Amino acid sequence: MSLGRTFLDVRPLRTSPVYRRLLIGRTVSTLGGFMTMVTVMYQVWDMTHSSVWSGAVGLAQALPMVGVGLFAGAWVDRADRRRVYLLATVGQAVCSLLLAVQGFTGHAPVPLILALVAAQASFGAVGGPAAGVFVPRLLPRDQVAAGLALNQATGQSMMLVGPAVAGLVLGWWGIGVCYLLDALTFGLAFYGAFGLPPLPPEGEKSRPGLHGVLDGLRFLTGNRVVRGALLTDLAATVLAMPVSLFPLVNEERFGGDPRTLGLFLSALAVGGVIATAFSGPVTRLARPGPVMLCASGLWGVSLAVFGLTTSAWAGIAALVLAGAADAVAVLSRTTIVQTRTPDALLGRVTAAEAIVGQAGPHLGNLRGGLAAGWSSGATALVTGGVLCLLAVTAVAATTAELRGGAGDPDEEPGRAPDSGSSSAGAVEGDGATAAAPGAP
């Protein structure tokens, strides 16, 4: 294998100007989103010095994802995804502007700040499923995984850079400027998507209301590959999420040194960035099912090793490996969802995937805390890693379709058109840009 094929596959950047602009918009908006996340936490803590109110920030961000997500997905599967995304982007920008106004005036009560955060998260829960169709509709099938890897790489990079930039801006200019900069980043996301052609669902539109939601859930339970991918992700996050255990393990094993704790938190992200940077062979392999199963099992094993080690550097190495495995598993799961879901259902399934990704880590951190309360942090880590490995093995044993490849059937239900198709050509000639966690 040539060295060039080892690194992140950048073919979508060369072959698709529209995707390139979408990625730029996504990257800048993600940066703004992480800046706002840090700023809200800082402002609420500065106003209250209460861990309860600080915890409410996460709740204000997570609840709309669950409460709005599935119904938003059903709406997205009835409408022009481009228009829905643009409306959601405008809604999020308005929320950031209102946060900036209260940041400059300094008179808003905490519940109002949380209400604005929840409103912005609600718009994100609408725009996310709409943006979920962009990559499989804009890129040829053999580049979908590469496009998703580029999205992931830029998102992880902004996750590292965004909080640091927020800290500098907060120190120099204050919270109002941070919120205002986030609002401006939505302008690039809007500009990118504005040039897209209409992207209505291909096939039968979603039924309105609860009926459409139930149709999406029936697909999730009936499609063994997609169901297996989401179950694997739940096994990894619910059974083995380690973040809530880091302070306790740091206290038990390493004397509570804050520098060690910081390295634990950074190691997962570093592993993810490294794995994504060298994801070329994974995305070109076109076998996301087996890759996801192996990576999820490695995640569990790495965390069990971290629980057993008494060396800080060995523990950090195990966490870097776990972060790399997690990044590969997430990339493979997203590839499965976006290539195995019919376009007419993609909004609802993307919304369900986002809910799994949001709820799983929260439940996993809760499980870890409860298990540690009954035993110890190290025991909770080891048992969680072993349970994750067993659960992933069970999914693999019972889902032959996932073991067999899950990425290259002849009749790919949600496949993007090939490069020469009229749909791809129409988009290529038009121009645009896309989403981000900060944006939808």
UniProtKB/TrEMBL annotation:
Location in the cell: Cell inner membrane
Subcellular location, principal: membrane
UniProt KW Repressor keyword: no
Domain of life: Bacteria
Residue stretches spanning the membrane: 21-45, 51-72, 84-104, 160-191, 228-249, 261-278, 298-331
Annotated segments matching region Disordered: 403-440
InterPro entries: MFS_trans_sf, TM_effector
Biased composition (Low complexity): 431-440
Presence of keyword Ribosomal protein: no
Membrane topology of the entry: Multi-pass membrane protein
Keywords carried by this UniProt record: Cell membrane, Membrane, Transmembrane, Transmembrane helix, Transport
PANTHER family associated with the record: ENTEROBACTIN EXPORTER ENTS, INTEGRAL MEMBRANE EFFLUX PROTEIN-RELATED
The protein's name: MFS transporter
Source organism per UniProt: Streptomyces phaeoluteigriseus
Lineage, broadest ranks: Bacteria, Bacillati, Actinomycetota, Actinomycetes, Kitasatosporales
